[in-house]
Amino acid sequence: MVSSMKIQLVLFFACSLFLQGTLGEVVCEDLPTDVCAFSIASSGKRCLLENFSTRDGKVEYQCRTSEVVVERMAEYIETDGCISACGVDRNSVGISSDALLEPQSTAKICSPACYENCPNIVDLYFNLAAGEGVFLPDLCQRQRTNPRRAMIELLSSGAAAAGPASVGSSQDVSAAPAPAYI
Ligand SMILES: *[C@@H]1O[C@H](CO)[C@@H](O)[C@H](O)[C@H]1NC(C)=O
């Protein structure tokens, strides 16, 4: 099991080196759809996996350049190690903060294996959380003490900025703002 993962990792690195070597630079539109999500083009922009249905009703996928610029990181294809440590899915379509609303997903992103080793994915969720008015380190802190309600609490305390922070209040999930899509 462990050794097969190692082989996969080695293969993946070999493939990504090969890709970068042959293309010269990473262009989202040229990436295979299975390494599109969480990749960063040479331009520093995030790649975005999109789906669409063809005329005969089939769902197809394409990799596109988003307008999201990643500071201090360019030309990067995420490792399988980080994909699994952070519990994210290379086949996920679009970029959304939905994962932060799910305790299991937040736990993965906040886990030391992800949080301390996978700056690309952490940067992405840091910004998605910020888009909801939430500071990711705070979310991770709360996640450790009260995993079930961490995001909801932060969202409701943010929304109720005028009043006192509603820690422990039982606000309905539906009161949370809609997740941001970029
Ligand atoms: C694209 O993917 C989303 C999320 O997985 C799904 O809800 C949607 O129906 C898909 N759209 C098409 C055209 O297949």
Automatic annotation (TrEMBL):
Residue numbers spanned by region Disordered: 163-182
Entry keyword set: Signal
Domain of life (superkingdom): Eukaryota
Database matches in Pfam families: PAR1 (PF06521)
Signal peptide: 1-24
Membrane-spanning parts: none
Identification of the protein by name: PAR1 protein
